[in-house]
Amino acid sequence: MIENILINGLIHGGVYALLAVGFSLIFGVARIVNIAHTAFYMVAAYLIYTFATRLHLHPLLAIFLSIVIVPLIGILIYQLTIKPIQEHHVTVLIVTITVAIVFQEIMLLLFGGHFRGNPSLFVGYLEIFGVRVSYQHLLTLIVVFFVLLVTWWILLRTRLGIAIRATAQDREVANLMGMNVSRVAMITMGIAVTMAAIAGVLVAPLSVVEPYMWLHPLVMMLAIVVLGGLGSIKGSLAGAFILGFAETLVVFLIPLGAFLKGAFSLTIMIVVLLIRPEGLFGVAFEEER
Amino acid sequence: MEKLAKGVFLFAVVFLFVMSSGVVAYGQEIKIGIAGPMAFVQGQHHWYGAEFGAEEVNAKGGILVGGKRMPVKLVKIDTNEILNVPDAAGAIERAITRDKVDFLMGGFRTEAVLAMQMIAMDYKKIFLGCGAAHPELCGRVAKDYNNYKYWFRVTPINSMFLAKVDFILLGMVAKIMGMELGITQPKVAIVAEKAVWVEPIVAAAKANLPKMGMEVVGEWRPSATATDVTAELSAINAAGAHIIFTTISGPLGISYAKKWGELKIPAASVGINVESQKKGFWEATGGMGNYDMSINTYARVEITPATIPFYDKFAAKVGEFPTYNAGTNDAIKILSAAIERAGTLDAEKVVAELEKTDFSGAPGRIVFTKEHDVTWGPGYVTGTGTQWQDGKLMCVWPVNWEGVTYKGAVKYKIPPWVVEKWKKK
Question: Which residues in chain A are contacts of B264 at CB distance < 8 A?
């Protein structure tokens, strides 16, 4: 059973990490609580469904197109709706909720309330320590770790990464040092939405594509970033795997209560916040940043 | 100037006359409100089923009422009940008071239909249910006939009988596995979404399975809105189950079947999986749902002479297999026949005629019980068991059940990987 929990927990945690790190990135840099983050994930899932299943494009081309188009939509949304009101945090929150609902309604209008599925890129499974793991899950896991590594490298080893971290640390000082913080925020939005799009195209063959598929990951993603500490990428990573493993544990240890896995994860978040209100890797006061 | 005023006056008179003629003609139609969640497949099937029924009735010039043919006009009522149950009550009231519908049909979620039913009964509007399975809907007719007599259920069979068919299908699969694989006491894993309608089925399963010679190895209850059960399937595999007994109505049905087939979990899948009743299931699971078996209302077999023509027409025009919500097709014909027998639109007289219904419809012979529920059993509506076999949704039940075999039904197939795993060497 331990090997089951380990493997399934890693898979769940990996997908959550991809979403949560992107969300944390844009929050850390621009203080944007982007509720529409998982809506971009949904749009990516619908795009790959349209390209691969409806238009019968090659799956790799479908993936490429989805991962290119969604960030462009994300940047457009940022420029048109978020940037003009970026300093008004509550307004940004409301606007991003609206954007998410608009996406949901567009998908409902275009595709109806049907549950769609995408074929796996690789069909079949591999037995690891007696646990059957589908190739698609393995691929997901590999891509997740690769994307996270690339993100880490960008942040730590490139000029862009320095600019992003500097803006995250102090927007005003970064501006005074000659950095175009507005541009940095836009690029960060692009990177974050790209991560959501990658999560979307990876999950589309594992899950069900439907207009409300953004809601559950949104709740989990918010729980993860709060658990890990708002804006902390390290925290988001830790939070994602903690909640991924927590969900898997519930399924294996309390099968009758499998429906409680989401509630159990949220309870963990509350308990951690009671003990450490700033989250696992968060800073105690925002002014200290 | 005077001429102009006269002209305007004349035009106004003519315009009002034309409009009032229109109103008279409009009043001569029979308006049937089709209630369902129209953005979803359930509501769409309500609508398409009704359209096919209305087309047939209108091809004859309409319903004959007291020697005069009155065409049927359908009114779409979007109840939005999947997303927000209270919306349904408002939608039905609006249809009755603003759109002035004469009759109502459809409904999907029991919680919503219970509310819609009460409003329809207050207005003494005949409501033919084509979607909700809870026994309480007809239980109200039994308890308070005078108020609730305007309600009739056409589809599906009520959930007590759904559960009964469910166990018959499970028993059939266990028997076939016993004969072909020598498994005398099959181990069963219960996978049931966490929802109110599921509880009686799960309780009955836990009570009955040991009596049926089966061992329950575990009960997994994912959320009704869950979309990934990989962990649950891993646990079921580890538990050594021979059969997975499913009770799933939501999107979970797709990801469950997809992962079940892809991971080749060595347990036959049988029970209720609403998604597997749909044509899109094959595409949605990428063919991985092969051999998944579910209870169903229709199948492309000769339940009655009406079944295959309706099934084919629906599949050709809609691009989907009809689900139980498409029972509006028969509901329109049943209502039309009752109105013609009554010779009036008077609800009291039409109810009396509806009670005498004995109609050969697509899901079987429809006769209403004294509680206005559709009669279940051999010779009436039985439901079907359907299994995906290499891209085709085949009817595998009833076959030699209580003397009933539907022409075109085939034998249930155990998934090959299950055979490979459990076949005694």
Answer: 125, 132
